[in-house]
Amino acid sequence: MAPLYLAAALFLFYAGWTMIEVPFSAWAGELSGAYHGRTRSVTFQQTAQASGLLLVLILPTLLEQFRPADIALKLHVVGGFILLTLAPALVLSLTAFREPPRPAYEPKPEGFLRTASLILHDRLLVRVLASDVAVTAGQSIRAGLITFFAVNYMGEPGWASGLYLFQFVFGIFAAPLWLQIGRRFGKRETAILGELVQVAINLGLLFVVPGGIGLLLALTIAQGLAQGSGNLMLRAMVADVADHHELETGHNRTGLFFSVFSLATKAGPAIGIGIALPFIAWMGFSPKGANPPEALETLKYVFALGPALAHILSAALIWRFPLDAQRQASIRRALDARAAGQLPL
To answer: What global pTM score does this model have?
Structure first.
């Protein structure tokens, strides 16, 4: 019964989380129609989510100092923290922002095939989705192999959790920095810059050797400072694509576009881990140890080049993305004029 209970509980949890996460993401894109305003909304949203996750990760670490063997206590404290924060979050969600008026015309629900056709025929959306899949695939390769790299290649098991934590913490602090860069240069340019910076950082891993923990630590911190750039800009670009789609078709499908973006974000890790782990196993690597030098070198090259290639692909997919600040402003003016009855549908 225990496996069935766990499977049912996980299914209900992730179904409920998806019901919250999809409209919550779409909401960030609709809070502002301004080009940079959307970047700000997404940045604040992602920073708040990451900060909450960091608190949840820190709580079990603190409890380990007092009750290291009490796993049940850790689960209860984390669960209690989530329940306590849900109530004020619900109140803020219902009262912090005024709900906009409902549109005069609401399209009828469309079937799966029609919806899939709409998505696949929107080339701008497909480019953003593909770029995000590449970003998250590269990040998942790095996250999935970082423990093996620290323990098996570097011989530093004590740094396995610390490296991941450093990357995560510096990623939170870097979000406002990328917001300012995005305001200065635009979303496309900032996303491309962030991806190319991550390419350079991952290529730097090729120069890391066992015992060189200082260089690895520096590259990990740099990765944390850069890793959120593409995620933030691409998520903000979805709302601009939705505006472009609405101008061309007369239908607001922002919620649909963000839901598809959420699915693409989940597809990236599946692709990255699904390729990287079987490949290093096929090349002879075993996490249990006693690996030949060739297997450890394979681990190093996959850990470095896998994310680098993924970030190159991500940058290439949006290299000539046409929706800049000027184009998006003209789209918003046209949509506002249409809403005022000055333009036909």
So the answer is: 0.80
